[in-house]
Amino acid sequence: xxxxxxxxxxxxxxxxxxxxxxxxxxxxxxxxxxxxxxxxxxxxxxxxxxxxxxxxxxxxxxxxxxxxxxxxxxxxxxxxxxxxxxxxx
Length: 89
Prior knowledge:
Low-confidence stretches: none
Radius of gyration: 14 Å
Distance between the termini: 28 Å
Helix content: 55-70%
Number of domains: 1
Mean pLDDT: 83
Order of helices and strands: HHHHHH
Shape: globular
Number of strands: 0
Number of helices: 6
Structural class: mainly alpha
């Protein structure tokens, strides 16, 4: 599990600043990679929903992960960090 998680998470976290604001259809490929990794780690079959699987692994969906990582990287929480997190995400 650790090897799969570290490989996938480093690839998902690569260039978060470039991926911020990208359309959902472009992020769907990354989301499908994360879903496949979650299924591989847990042994879940394809027809089952991946949201509970991601939650059980404590993995954020790709869009939320991008925003979370960008907020962590900002130095000024009252400036840039507050504007990165939009209500509803």
